[in-house]
């Protein structure tokens, strides 16, 4: 890298350019987060599913229903 004097103005321009690039990247991340959240809407979490399995098994036992696991 070439050594030399740099003015405050040039340094400010360089820093502003970097901030603009970071801002653009963060904007893309926000959009990706929104897409991910939309895809996860309606998805049942594992713990909820496991609780539901237990409740169904209890109901089957109460009603004396034979169920086969698939």
**Count of extended strands:** 0
Strand content: under 5%
| Radius of gyration (Å) | 28 Å
* Uncertain segments: none
Basic shape: rod-shaped
Number of domains: 1
Q: What is the SS-derived class?
A: mainly alpha
Largest sheet properties: none
Helix content: over 70%
The count of helical stretches stands at 2
User: What is the CA–CA distance across the termini?
Assistant: 66 Å
Quick summary:
This protein is mainly α and 70 residues long. It has helices at residues 8-40, 46-62.
How would you portray this structure in words?
The structure is a single chain. The protein is an all-alpha fold and 70 residues long. The protein has one domain (8-62). It is 71% helix and 0% strand. It is built from two helices and no strands. The chain has helices at residues 8-40, 46-62. The longest helix has 33 residues, at 8-40. The chain starts with 7 loop residues before the first helix and ends in an 8-residue tail after the last helix.
List keywords for this structure.
70 residues; 0% strand
């Amino acid at each position: 890298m070439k050594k030399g004097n740099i003015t405050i103005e040039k340094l400010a321009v360089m820093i502003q350019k970097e901030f603009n690039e970071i801002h653009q990247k963060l904007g893309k991340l926000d959009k990706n987060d929104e897409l991910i959240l939309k895809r996860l809407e309606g998805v049942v979490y594992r713990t909820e599913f496991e609780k539901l399995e237990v409740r169904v098994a209890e109901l089957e036992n109460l009603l004396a229903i034979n169920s086969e696991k698939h």
